[in-house]
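Customer escalation, tier 2.

The customer says the design service returned an amino acid string that "doesn't look like it belongs to this structure." They asked us to rerun it and document both sides in this ticket. The original structure tokens are below, unchanged.
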């Protein structure tokens, strides 16, 4: 009997959105299972205490626990590199694979890959974060050629509170940035409820809406060699032409990293 493909995801400890939403997107996919490992994240800010939460050593310990489940891919399902710098996630992927022998990807690197594939550079940015965090995201994404031409943020800091924002309010923020003019919307936070409104808003507004939880799952499916078009009703991310091909080099398996793939 062929075992399911196992997706491993690293999850902020106070996140209550990404696990149920990811499982909802995978409903009916009996050949895929998803497994989560947590590490401590309770606030998003630029203070030394808040930034220390994303020290690689804590994330690597959580990744090593996922390796015990013999997952096929390990994803950092979080957006911290948006304000810390894309190079942080590039190095994290390398360190996860060095430590576990398992391919790695992240939400932020998946966004970059996604927008490069589509040739989209004018982005509407929606987050729950504080102004200073939002400004860092805009600067870091700009350095990668991703121009945030419209933005909305909620000035929240407590990570748990992000998932308490009603889906309808998230939809309103998306509508606001589309009205200001952008080629795509990025809901940047894996504890925010944007995935469930993406399909409806795309139909109404004519602009693609890419939610962080959905983008992470898309990257995992690509890295695992699974056609994302099996995910229906969650937006054009999973069905758009050009987005079902091979993963970017950052999530390709190193040739000598095979030891955790046996059943």
């Amino acid at each position: 009997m062929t075992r399911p493909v196992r997706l491993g995801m690293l999850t902020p400890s106070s996140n209550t959105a990404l696990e149920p939403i990811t499982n909802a997107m995978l409903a009916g996919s009996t050949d895929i299972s998803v497994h989560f490992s947590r590490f401590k994240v309770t606030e998003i800010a630029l203070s030394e205490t808040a930034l220390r939460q994303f020290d690689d050593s804590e994330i690597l310990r959580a990744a090593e626990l996922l390796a015990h489940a013999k997952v096929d891919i390990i994803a950092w399902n979080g957006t911290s590199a948006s304000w810390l710098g894309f190079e942080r996630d590039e190095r994290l992927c390398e360190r996860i694979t060095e430590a576990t022998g398992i391919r790695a990807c992240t939400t932020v690197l998946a966004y970059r890959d996604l927008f490069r594939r589509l040739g989209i550079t004018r982005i509407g940015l929606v987050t729950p974060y504080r102004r200073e965090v939002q400004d860092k995201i805009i600067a870091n994404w700009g350095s990668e050629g991703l121009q945030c031409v419209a933005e909305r943020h909620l000035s929240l800091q407590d990570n748990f509170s992000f998932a308490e924002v009603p889906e309808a309010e998230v939809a309103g923020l998306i509508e606001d940035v589309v009205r200001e003019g952008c080629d795509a919307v990025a809901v940047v936070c894996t504890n925010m409820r944007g995935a469930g409104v993406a399909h409806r808003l795309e139909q109404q507004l004519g602009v693609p809406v890419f939610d962080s939880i959905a983008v992470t799952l898309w990257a995992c499916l690509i890295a695992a060699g699974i056609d994302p078009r099996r995910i229906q009703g969650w937006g054009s991310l999973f069905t758009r032409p050009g987005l079902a091909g091979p993963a970017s080099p950052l999530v390709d398996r190193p040739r000598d990293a095979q030891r955790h793939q046996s059943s």
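Tier 2 assessment: The sequence is consistent with the input. The mean pLDDT is 92. The domain at 5-110+214-251 is CATH 3.40.50.12500 (Rossmann fold). Sent an explanation to the customer and offered a walkthrough call.
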